[in-house]
From TrEMBL:
This is Inositol 2-dehydrogenase. PANTHER family: BINDING ROSSMANN FOLD OXIDOREDUCTASE, PUTATIVE (AFU_ORTHOLOGUE AFUA_2G10240)-RELATED (PTHR42840:SF3), NAD(P)-BINDING ROSSMANN-FOLD SUPERFAMILY PROTEIN-RELATED (PTHR42840). Gene3D superfamilies: Dihydrodipicolinate Reductase, domain 2 (3.30.360.10). Residues 1-70 form the GFO/IDH/MocA-like oxidoreductase domain. The keyword Oxidoreductase applies. SUPFAM superfamilies: Glyceraldehyde-3-phosphate dehydrogenase-like, C-terminal domain.
Amino acid sequence: MLRWILEEDPVTVYTTAHTFDPEIKALDDYDTVFVVLKFPCGVIAHIDASRHCVFGYDQTVQIYGEKGNIISDNPLKSGLIRNGGAERDEIFYSFPTRYAAAYQEELKHFVDLIKGTTSVSRVKPSDTLRATYLCEAVEESCRTGKVINVPSFFQNLFKGKTDDPLLNE
């Protein structure tokens, strides 16, 4: 999502993580992750993720700038604010319920592409590939405990052949 909002790849990523759940640890995986990304435009972003959010599937985006901020909060069915306080519905409990409408729209768009009723894909192959390779850089940082230079990581990943049209469309 950050790549889409900022329209650029980060230049560095740093990740730290921990596993509290023994079952997840047995899989050599993490249940709590924190990622810091720095972008060419100067934006520094962080992503924190946990498999154990006791109040539901929390996913928010907050962007702060010199002229204000943008917030995309968890969708709610309703809320009430009055002089005695505020009440809100609980957030979605899991990603399948949180993104049900988005998954339906994604499938509809795919079918429209197959049928030929639309010819422009909303997602380019390069978006998918770059996001996947960026996840690999995040994993490398977590494994090594080091800040990863993303352009160098991409160069090493592709042995210098980063002119692939699929990566650069």
